[in-house]
Amino acid sequence: MTQANISKFRQLVQEHQRLDAILGSDDELAHLLPVVEVTLGVLAQDEAGHYYGIVIRADREAIRLTHSGSIPEAAMPNTAMYANSAAWDECLSRQPAPNFHHFFAMRMRVPETTVIGDEQTFAQHAHILRRLIEIGREIVSGSSPAASKYDLDRSPITGNYLSVSLENRLIDLHVEHSGPVDGPVLLFLHTAGADARQAHSIMNDPTVVNRYRTVAFDMPGHGFSDRLDDEFGSWSLTTERYIAAIEAVITQLDLDQPILIGASMAGQACLAMALHRPDLIGGVVACEAADHVPGRTTPWPTDPQVNGSIFAAEWIDGLIGPQSPQQLRWDIRWQYSQGGFGTFTGDIDFYSGSWDIRGQLSRIDTNACPVVMMTGEYDYSCTPEMSEATAASIKGAEFWVMPELGHFPVYENPVAFSPHLSKALALIERKRNA
Fold this sequence. Notes:
Layout: H1 8-14, H2 16-23, H3 27-30, E1 38-45, E2 51-58, E3 63-70, E4 79-82, H4 85-91, H5 103-109, E5 114-117, H6 119-141, E6 158-166, E7 169-178, E8 185-188, H7 206-209, E9 213-217, H8 239-253, E10 259-263, H9 265-276, E11 283-287, H10 308-317, H11 326-336, H12 343-354, E12 371-376, H13 384-392, E13 398-402, H14 409-412, H15 414-433
Parallel strand pairs: 1-4, 8-9, 8-10, 10-11, 11-12, 12-13
Antiparallel strand pairs: 1-2, 2-3, 4-5, 6-7, 7-9
């Protein structure tokens, strides 16, 4: 059988010498070495039901390949990523299809994909396994075309603290601004576990700031803002808390009918405001949002035996479209590694827990508050199908899919996102002026 006719996964297994050489020289892996020795695998099953694939050993000295091909029971790793061979073939392709581009996406959306062995060990070493797949993809499919470098000038953005009363406490929220002070207002909300830095690219986009005043703020306990809770790690976001924070910023800054823009949990907050406080806002651009998003809670960021900074970055890595600039992918990962203890999981309490407005969408009046929804095709958490179904239940809402984008469209690929935002804003203004 020729090399061209064998599956990509089989090809990777056969390239064991090349893989081992790269594992021993890869710069990223050199910074990910564990203190305690562990064996990790990438596995499938053959027609007879026997495991085959690759197994590596990682310790404080190096990461090396120990087995390739058929894996005997005695050589089974401590933990492994498992999928069928066809799924691995798509994952290892140069431009994988949505839901096949990352193991976490496959595990959530591709049947038969799972973790074999110890789940905690997997959570502790997911970063090594992710890099292993990236190297495998480069071996069998070549490097993906490099996205152009994105240069960001933050000099037009200014920041200050805003004292607001929330839950009978006076706290300082960090707020940032750009654009003409007398222009129509865009109010940006950030995703779970992150902060207002996510909006910086749009707050510096000439197509936006030449016309609009842009405002973004850090939620309580995020970025530079004060936290609300006294107990360390006790943060838990609710719809009521989110609405209260948005109301406070709009009121204290005396913002006139701002258009809300957000993705993920911030997209859900846009829908919450359209439902509960349409009188305060002039419309919403709800990205990566749906009426209910189950299946994204995880205990590992707060497990004392798992490095939460590393795991949070891995948990969100597959939500980024693979065509996004690598520089911005690492910026997103870096920001997610910086969150306070329990902040990310506390936000997910809302995003994939208490948030559920099924049966209430018909109450949203798009004549009073225009609604535009759009979702990246690589978002496996809140899929395009989930967002489309939600938009279809809101009379007058607009929806479209954003090609080559994922769960963080504002941040991960600003050049690709900007035309979508311009289209959304034009639709909202047209409806407001009708």
